[in-house]
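Annual report, structural modelling task.

Input specification for the zinc ion complex:
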Amino acid sequence: MDVCDEMTASNSPRLRIAVAGFLQESVTFISEMTTLEQFRQVEAAGAALIERYRGTNTGIGGMIDRCERENAEIVPIFYTFGGAAGPTSDEAYDHYIGRLLEGLRGAGRLDGILLDLHGALATPSRLDADRETLERVRALVGADMPVVVALDYHANIDQASIAAADAVFGYHYSPHTDMGPTGERAADCLFRKLKGEIDPVCVLVKPGVMVPSIFSATGLEPLKSIVARSIAESEKAAAYLDISVFAGFSYADVPNCGFSVVVVTSGDRVAALEIAKRYSADIVAMREALNHKELVYSVESGIAYAKRVVAAGRRPVVLLEHADRMNDSTYLLREVLRQQLPRTVVPYVWDPKAAAAAVAAGKGATVDLSVGGHSSDRAGGPVRLQGKVTHAGRITYRATGPYFTGRLVELGETAVIDTGSVVVSLTSVASTAVDDDCLTQFGQRLDQFDIIVLRSKTHFRAFFERVSADILIVDTPDWGPADLTTLPYRYVPLDRVYPFAEPQGE
Ligand SMILES: [Zn+2]
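The model returned the following structure:
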């Protein structure tokens, strides 16, 4: 760099970018709210936010990394998340929207804002809370401030939801192995806009199709090809182009539930709309295949099949209680305990009371507990669990698996109960097991077990597809069933959305 360049570089003020994250996938059918206290337990703010999320596979991690590579000054506000659980309480939403606006107001000069949101956050009084978040940010900062957003692939959005943002970007994959890169795509758009290289135009088209989460995995055809094509088209484009296919989240009963396609171009609204409509038409054409009524097992037939696979010398087998929404449903747990299935592990059953009782009894104690099944009337009811406590105490760690790599996982007070055949871990903070951290944290190894009972929808695939002999999807009557027509929707426009009617997109 010559002297002139050095002068310019040192004299031009660093770009100042505010970053914040507020994410939740709200299961509106569950009446138990996700509370302010729960969001607070996992919150990071100020400088600690940057330290905690730098280099992690999260939307905000990707934003931080890109800001640092650009030598921008990051103004960290807060980052918190409520998992996929009952709706965010209005109290929690009011608290965090208040802090977001306050943080932006007090930030001083800003050049841009990067937000990491989910897109399926609902509260009892807000069916599209992320839209309100963006509109209130826009109202505060004015029309000229660039606001760029990363969203989850399971976002329920329409054109109005994102109208207040300059551009939005969704994860391409489920399991969400590209959350960090999605944050980078959002930050890349912001920096290129600030440098005058592009003038982002963002359009959204909805095909009018819904899919159960279990079939939103992007490793399954025909989604796999649709997503791969959209990525290839963006990469090959001569001009700036970014395509996000969103599957939506079918367990949120909201008017804009379901798939959306978002296309960002530089200044070319006509091209963006043409591309979005093309992918939307593909989704409509593939609607039946997307909702594959593939083989889903009952509890009994799933366990019986798993036993046959193990008897044939193939292990471990994943039994997937995918309809569970709160990490506490007990349909498989009850049956594996009744059958005393050997070498079986049921990780991360969320039950703060039972976990506390086992922790109080202490390592080595024998306990007789009533666990799980309390989150809703569809969760299966509590199950009696008798055994020896082999771990008792708080657990906090950084995820080592390919999903959410590096993210801090806090389970709170946690106990492991060994019944002599089945091993169950009880957590105080709801967390979904997606890799073998749920074993290694307690000194266990995957090869000690033949059967592992999981509750993840797609994220577990990033780790378990490689290491398991078979993955058996077990359907239970909880709030996340494979058959969407069994759910009591009130706000989804059932006369216009597949699988309830022929799709009428917009
Ligand atoms: Zn998601």
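The chain has 16 helices and 17 strands.
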